[in-house]
Amino acid sequence: MSIDKKPAIDLIIPGLLNLPIHELSFAELASSTPALHKLLRYASRVPAALADVDEILIRRLGLQQAALPFAHAIRPQHKGPQLLFKPVHLKADINNAIVYPVNSDEDKLLSIINDLTEFFKDDCEVISLPDNRWLMTLLNCEPVTEVPHYLTALGKKVTHYLEQSKANLEWFKLFNEMQMFLYQHEVNQHRQQTGQLLINSLWCWGADQYQGEKLTDTLWFSDDSDMRKIGELYAGNADYIENIKLTDITSNMVIIDLSILKLLKGNDDLDTHQVLQYVEENCFEVLMKTRKHQIIVHTGGGFNFHYGAMSDLKFWKKYSDLREVILQSQPQH
């Protein structure tokens, strides 16, 4: 994915070109994200067809499969079939099915998942993970594979994946029974009475096989624990994004920042400008100082940015505000 033979920094920031324009203040952006705006001005814009972080990483890793082996990356020593899951609200009708996140008191969420685990203890074993995620080991059937990451699935039509699971009859039967159990649980009875979205399904992903591929001479960073596990599996190393500034940048790098994507998918802990400030300080501010690398910013939206050591000599290029760039990335009707 390098532009030339120089070491490449692949900076994967899905959602950068999907930020809501009305939340972006021109004056605040100009003063708080100068390194980002330097890149926006001088980098080449290269059309890109890959929209999801799953697809971008699969291409970067050179894999010949449709989804990443997240469960194996988290527990590589385990030999049985396993997958990750999060409780969701699945809105389904005759033609479509869309996945929505659920907000819930953590104790209630634990209650419904613990009861599910106990009820289906002859079918699966469940381990709790951070960020209200769980790892499930199946005891009597094979899991569904080729399913996108939870963040990729949120807010999108997933009918294709649900139809695909019907080919795996034992899994399909177990999954339907789990959905019925969730629907009838007392936590959902209370949610229904108070007008909240029901926790009526699970989004299951990451069950795909690891084929033994390895990256060499590549440093891996991410703000997401699952993505760091993928880095440990394929690159043999992984660190937090905040530690890039402490790193001697002499080799290829893969950096995955999901903070914008999580914001767009319903994480209300931070606002848009706080997230952009984090990306500026921990990614762009550090990387734009290097003169030895080609930087490829994967946006998942229309085009990517390619920036090299000679890019900022193109002094005739006009200043580009992030809002303008977002508008230019959108399909013209």
Index terms:
seven-stranded mixed beta sheet, 333 residues, 36% helix, single chain, 13 helices, alpha/beta, five-stranded antiparallel beta sheet, 19% strand
Explain what the structure shows.
- The chain is of the alpha/beta class and 333 residues long.
- Helix content is 36%, strand content 19%.
- The chain has 13 helices and 12 strands.
- It has helices spanning 26-32, 34-42, 53-61, 70-74, 106-119, 150-153, 159-165, 169-184, 186-193, 225-234, 259-264, 272-287, 322-329; strands at 8-12, 44-47, 82-92, 97-100, 124-129, 133-138, 201-205, 218-222, 239-240, 252-256, 294-298, 303-307.
- The strands form 2 sheets. Strands 2-12-11-1-10-8-9 form a 7-stranded mixed beta sheet, sandwiched between helices. Strands 3, 4, 5, 6 and 7 form a 5-stranded antiparallel beta sheet that branches.
Low-confidence stretches: none
Q: Determine the number of helices (DSSP H or I, runs of at least 4 residues).
A: 13
Q: What amount of the residues lies in strands?
A: 15-25%
What is the end-to-end distance?
31 Å
- What overall form do the CA principal axes indicate? globular
Major sheet: size, sense and barrel closure? 7 strands, mixed
Order of helices and strands: EHHEHHEEHEEHHHHEEHEEHHEEH
Q: What is the radius of gyration computed over CA atoms, rounded to a whole number of angstroms?
A: 21 Å
Summarize the structure.
Helix content is 36%, strand content 19%. The chain contains 13 helices and twelve strands.
Question: What's the structural blueprint in terms of helices and strands?
Answer:
Blueprint: E1 8-12, H1 26-32, H2 34-42, E2 44-47, H3 53-61, H4 70-74, E3 82-92, E4 97-100, H5 106-119, E5 124-129, E6 133-138, H6 150-153, H7 159-165, H8 169-184, H9 186-193, E7 201-205, E8 218-222, H10 225-234, E9 239-240, E10 252-256, H11 259-264, H12 272-287, E11 294-298, E12 303-307, H13 322-329
Parallel strand pairs: 1-10, 1-11, 8-9, 8-10
Antiparallel strand pairs: 2-12, 3-4, 3-6, 3-7, 5-6, 11-12
